[in-house]
Amino acid sequence: CRSTYWLAPTHHLAMPTLQRLSRAAPKIRDAPQRLGHQLRWRSTNSVPFYGAPRPEVAGSPPSGPLSPLQRAGVAVHSAATALSDPTRADAVAALGEVTGHVALCGIYDRMMQDPVGQRILRDRPTVDSSAIDLESLLVPKDNEKTTFGNVYASFMKEHEFHPDDRDEVRFISDPELAYIMLRYRQCHDFWHALTGLPPTVLGELALKWLEVIQTGLPIAALSATVGPLRLSPNEREVLSTVYFPWAIRVGKNASFLLNVYYEEEFDTCIHELRDKLGVEPAPSLEITTSS
Asked: In sequence order, what are the beta bridge partners of 38?
């Protein structure tokens, strides 16, 4: 699925269906008034949704190279487990690996078309405690600016997350595709910091829609389509009228987010980084039903 590439411009994935849905959705500025809610984000240390760090538990499929029949079996088992218990991130991770080959090949192509993406694939940086010191990132580097590293470390500390928490890849034999899947998982918290989305169910779903548009990974699409079942009617309307249009807009207009060497951007002002990448911060909302 892979070829050798000279440097060339990247191109975003075409999403005609999402474009039509985006044009049909109301404008963000009208959504709060139309819904009749007072909206502002409340930061909570809630359980993250779909793909959150979780230890492997009993009943997980054994890891290792899979035959086509085994791959199908793991997919069915993992899908059933994930749908019945979305907090089973081991099942979600396994399902993502056995269904993601085509999308991962597409991500590889896009990374090979970009000089930073090529460096990432060559260096294979990992997000763990041996490479990232959250305490040092919390220390302001400049009184005049808040850095990406400040925002990322604050997010991790506030929600009691740790850089070592993401699952290892178990079912992808190609080392380059396995690394891309690992990088995708490990960038998830970077994307929370970059977009300003909290790890609530609504915040995770908004980020999953952005991931769908950027990566095309089936597991992100499954999370984004099944996850709204856990929302209240008011939250589902906010997702469809506020966050879905936002995700389409950012997903199409922003740089390819897996071509960003986030570890080299820790000292960059968060506002400057967002401007450079074309990332519009997510609407900052809390849903309070009006009386």
From this structure: 288
pTM over 0.90: no
| Terminal Cα-to-Cα distance of the chain (whole angstroms) | 56
Amino acid identity of residue 21, one-letter, is: L
Q: Where residue 260 falls among pLDDT bands split at 50, 70, 90?
A: very high
| Exposed / middle / buried, residue 36 (Cβ in 10 Å: 0-12, 13-18, 19+) | exposed
Count other C-beta atoms under 10 Å from residue 130's C-beta. Answer: 9
Side-chain half-sphere of 116: how many Cα atoms within 13 Å?
Answer: 14
pLDDT cut 90: percent of the chain above it: 53
Long-range contacts: 158-161, Cβ < 8 Å, 24+?
158/43, 158/45, 159/45, 159/48, 159/198, 159/199, 160/45, 161/53, 161/189, 161/199
Element (H, E) at 166: none
Q: Which residue, among 129, 110, 137, 132, has the nearest Cα to 121 in the 3D structure?
A: 110
DSSP track, 182-201: HHHHHTHHHHHHHHT--SSH
